[in-house]
Amino acid sequence: MSKVELIKVDELGVSERALWRSLRQGQESLSSPYFSDAWVTQIARVRNDVKVAVLLQDNGRIAGFLPYQQLQTGIALPVGGALSDYHGMIANSDYRVDFQQVMQQINVKRFDFSYIPKAQACFSSYAWVEQRSHIIDISSGLDVYLQQRKQRGSSANYRAKKRARKLVKDFGELRLEAHSKDQKVFDQLLRWKRNQYKKTRNPDVFASKWTRDLVQNLFEKGKSGEFGGALFALYAGDKLIAANYCLGEGDVLHSWFIAYNPEFAKYSPGLVLFEKMIEHLAETHIREIDLGTGNYRFKTSLANKGRMVNAGFVGNSAIVALIPSYKYQLRKWAELMPLGSLSELPGKAMRRIDLRRGLA
What we know:
Layout lengths: L2 E5 L6 H11 L12 H10 L3 E7 L5 E9 L4 E3 L12 E2 L7 H8 L3 E8 L9 E11 L4 H10 L4 H16 L2 E4 L5 H18 L8 H13 L5 E10 L2 E11 L2 E9 L8 H13 L6 E5 L4 H6 L2 E11 L2 H19 L8 H15 L1
Parallel strand pairs: 4-6, 11-12
Antiparallel strand pairs: 1-2, 2-3, 3-4, 3-5, 6-13, 7-12, 7-13, 8-9, 9-10, 10-11
Helix pairs in contact: 2-7, 5-8, 10-11
């Protein structure tokens, strides 16, 4: 039987946080800011359902941590729910634990996950879907990165340069403002993003107060080299045409929310912004920009690296596993059928349900 101690985030002491950080060191699968204890702390500031399962060895020493949110239904979600693009256990790569036993001890009926690194073998038997997360690796410099993209047949850089020249001709010189502290720019980005959600009939991430408070807190905190939000804004002349709000920690940035002025849509402002960001960040300490999952054209054309993640659930009984099992079986069946875009509908429906539930 695995031994588990359940605590609140503010009960993590200096030694526990130091261990948390040391467990992540050297593990590429845990390099994302979403695995930071600072991320868990920020979510706990705006939600009251965040808990940490402390996984103990037989001698009582801490082996790892599993942060999560527990709904009133007894179902657990990753910390940050819909806003978390990575999650999982903070432990050494060779650590093994029976998660059904863990769930019994923390009184959780089911733990749903969407983006657990495939490297966390403990969850492999509970995974139903495998996805690729797209990453811009600039650790070897801009020239190497561009060459790798060229070898893969990506024409995004050429298209972006063409659009950039057109923007300069029509509106004036392009200017990237990195790590912007302009509240008006940040507010404009959120307005663009919310209009985009409405237009595409997707759940509005910022309809919930806790999500607005979270991104605002992280924006005010900024990324001072450790953990925080980082806003990048692109101007053509004096016009703000696109913005990208990232979550960052150390030498990793995760593209979180990107949006643009719809009046400039024909210029592909989002793509131009990314290319300008890459050029700028390649000259800094940043080694990778994570784009997350989703086979969107801009992600597949910009990325030169990938990381596999799993989606699924851990249930402590056949009854609580029945409905999600059926949903995943339907999704897998549809994705295997030659139905064109219809094959994607069950997966999209599941993501929307998870999003709404996570935003509650």
